[in-house]
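Predict the 3D structure for this chain.
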Amino acid sequence: MLVLTLAATLALAPVAALPSPARQARTAPSRRGRAARRRAYARMIEVDTVVLDASGPVLLDPDPADLMALTPRISPPEIPPEIRAMLDAAMQDGDERAVDAITKYARVGDPASGDLVLRRATEWREARARARDQQVRTAGAFQLWRGRAEAGGFIASGNSNVTGLTGAVDLTREGLRWRHRVLAQADLQRTDGVTSRERYVLGYQPNYKIDDRSYIYGNAQYEADRFLGYDNRYSASVGAGYGLLRRSGLTLDLEVGPAFRQTDFTDRTMQSSLAARGSIDFDWTLFSGLLFSQDASAYLERFNSTVRSVSAIEAKLLGPLSAKFSYTLQYESQPPAGRLTTDSISRASLVYTF
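Done. Predicted structure below.
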């Protein structure tokens, strides 16, 4: 606090206010009168004491309760009921693609609840993974097999009687570290009572998973196709595989490794040789319910090399039932005399997934 006190006394009074010397001479003022005049002059110039407070305004500490009362209450974000209903339905069906799509568009359409939708979807996936791991650990050797059964055929009559049948079974079992696949396929065609196509394939492939993309494979296969020029063919291979693409609706696996093949040709010759094996497995979901696949394999060896390609389009019909159209092309570099190097077959069949 700053205190400023001002007091002053005039040393000289105005000339007009002072008595003239002549008058002083005539009137000799008394001592009491002079004292009274001095007091009057002092009252005329006396200034009141002014107190200035420079400390500024006094701020009082607010009560937290008062601040909470004045602050508006903000509700935490919630998932809108429509989005929650769609997400719950997709989770109940176990449809991971639908969960991914709902999560993606929910984060765009409602950013306030997008993180909550993502967190809920992540927790659902983690819970499914834990349950699946526990189920695999406790499952027996003949459990957890999933697969596809394919059947098709045709009958023609008139100028020629043609009957064609095709069938295949593809089984896969996914374990924590091991994947097992068994494939069996048969094609048969008769024209006017004479067999014009007959092919059988049986294969088994175990895979040891190194991580989510890499694995070590083994492959054993038996084939019989006398119209391509061999009665029996045995193949064995080991090597490395890698999942080059792992996206929603798009996968690509590559395999490469050494192999050994033994072929019993229809001309009664036998051939055994080391070979190099490579394969690709490409699956692309064009849109919901429509799948394109391309599988190809090649055995490159000194005497006779083989390249096989299967292109297919599959459309979902109802539930586990689908319609499949495929085109198979097989090339043999050195077939027996009288045989063509290239053979092809088109198939139309129904596929049941289980």
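The first helix runs from residue 21 to 26.
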